[in-house]
């Protein structure tokens, strides 16, 4: 039997992992944070300004994204700058931006 890459339909473990990623970004603010971070790294204050919300809400949502391994922070000049670490999120955001509903 030849070795092949299993698709989501044939691999329940992979489907579960992908579902967790989708759950992690399935919140309007988290989705917008991911879209902004796809453009360039940002700190909490910049994200809060771009999202027209308070830094505490942004921090809370970033914690969820970090816990799923989707974003990471790097300290510089006393600020944490966040960036995308799951490289496939860019493609996911691009795909979702084409959705009509």
Biggest sheet features: 3 strands, antiparallel
Q: What's the β-strand tally?
A: 3
What is the highest CATH level, the class of the domain at 28-97? Mainly Alpha
Mean pLDDT: 91
Strand content: 5-15%
Task: Give the overall form.
Answer: globular
CATH superfamily of the domain at 28-97: Winged helix-like DNA-binding domain superfamily/Winged helix DNA-binding domain
Number of helices: 5
Percent helix = 55-70%
Classify the fold: give the CATH topology of the domain at 28-97: Arc Repressor Mutant, subunit A
State the CATH architecture of the domain at 28-97.
Orthogonal Bundle
What is the alpha-carbon Rg in Å? 15 Å
Poorly predicted residue ranges: none
* Structural class based on helices, strands and sheet pairing: alpha+beta
**What is the terminal-to-terminal distance?**
42 Å
For the largest sheet, list the strands in their spatial order.
1-3-2
Order of H and E elements: HHEHHEEH
Please provide a written account of the structure.
Strand 2 (71-76) and strand 3 form a beta hairpin. It is built from five helices and three strands; from the N terminus they run H-H-E-H-H-E-E-H. Helix content is 55%, strand content 14%. With 101 residues, it is α+β, with helices and mostly antiparallel strands. The protein is globular and about 45 Å long. The protein has a domain at 28-97: Winged helix-like DNA-binding domain superfamily/Winged helix DNA-binding domain (Arc Repressor Mutant, subunit A). It has helices at residues 12-25, 28-39, 44-51, 55-67, 89-97; strands spanning 42-43, 71-76, 79-84. It has a three-stranded antiparallel beta sheet.
């Amino acid at each position: 039997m030849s070795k092949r890459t299993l698709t989501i339909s044939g691999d329940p473990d992979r489907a579960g992992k992908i579902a967790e990623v989708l759950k992690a970004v399935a919140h309007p603010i988290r989705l917008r944070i991911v879209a902004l971070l796809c453009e360039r790294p940002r700190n909490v204050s910049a994200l809060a300004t771009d999202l027209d919300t308070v830094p505490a809400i942004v921090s809370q949502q970033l914690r969820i994204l970090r816990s799923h391994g989707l974003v990471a922070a790097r300290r510089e000049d006393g600020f944490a700058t966040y960036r995308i670490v799951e490289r496939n999120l860019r493609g996911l955001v691009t795909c979702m931006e084409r959705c009509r509903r």
